[in-house]
Amino acid sequence: TVLPLTAIAIIFMGVWSVITVRDSMEKTFQQLMVQELESFVDHNIRAYYDILKKNQLDTIDSFVKTYQKKVYDDTYKLHFIESGNLIIMSRSGDLYKQTADGKKFDSQVYQNIAMKITKDEMEYQIGHMDTPQLNQIYAGYFFKPWDWVIIYTVSHDIIHEAQNKIGNTAIAVGTGCLI
User: Fold this and answer.
1) pLDDT (tens digit, 0 to 9) for every residue of the chain, 179 residues total?
2) Can you tell me the distance from the alpha carbon of 35 to that of 172, in angstroms, rounded to the nearest whole number?
3) pTM for this one?
4) C-alpha–C-alpha distance, residues 139 and 126, integer Å
5) Distance between CA 151 and CA 77 in Å, rounded?
6) Contact 95/109 with Cβ under 8 angstroms?
7) Are 159 and 26 in contact (CB under 8 A)?
8) Quick one: CA dihedral 31, 97, 62, 93, positive or negative?
9) For residue 124, what is the DSSP state?
């Protein structure tokens, strides 16, 4: 009678751990994404724009395009870029850069997110993209001088990997106690 009670307690603790970890992991991950996106915007996008502005080149299209290309080339600097996706698009939905090659760009989903992001021009936004094709969290920012919406996404699967390990371990240990 002791082993079944122990198994039930272990399974209960596993379920409780999974639920607890899910919320805190997602919030922590979103904060990390905002920090990375903020750093990328400040050290790349805004820095290049400030150079153009300081030298009064911000209205000369060829210089602006050159510096925008430098930003595109710098996207690999984001920490989770291999498992995530950085999208740079216009407010109206025109795609300029997407780091996840081969992924379908669902312009309607991203345009809806872009509208949310552009409402509050000075704040970084976080949220969820839960569609049949996309199950991701995002951090986004609107860089008004270039009319860019920058959206940084990471799949829920990557975030919840640790949670799944905890749940699977609790089930295995609880089942082991019953055998």
Assistant:
1) 666 777 777 777 777 777 777 777 778 888 888 888 899 999 999 999 999 999 999 999 999 999 999 998 888 777 665 667 888 998 888 888 887 655 666 777 888 888 888 886 668 888 888 777 777 888 999 999 999 999 988 887 777 776 677 777 767 776 676 66
2) 37
3) 0.77
4) 4
5) 15
6) no
7) yes
8) negative
9) -
- Residue position matching structure tokens 């009678």: 1
d(CA 95, CA 150): 10
User: How many CB atoms lie under 10 A from the CB of residue 87?
Assistant: 23
Residue 168 has a CB neighbour count (10 Å cut-off) of 12
Angle (deg, nearest 10), helices 161-178 and 2-40: 170
DSSP conformation letters of 101-118: TT----HHHHHHHHHHHH
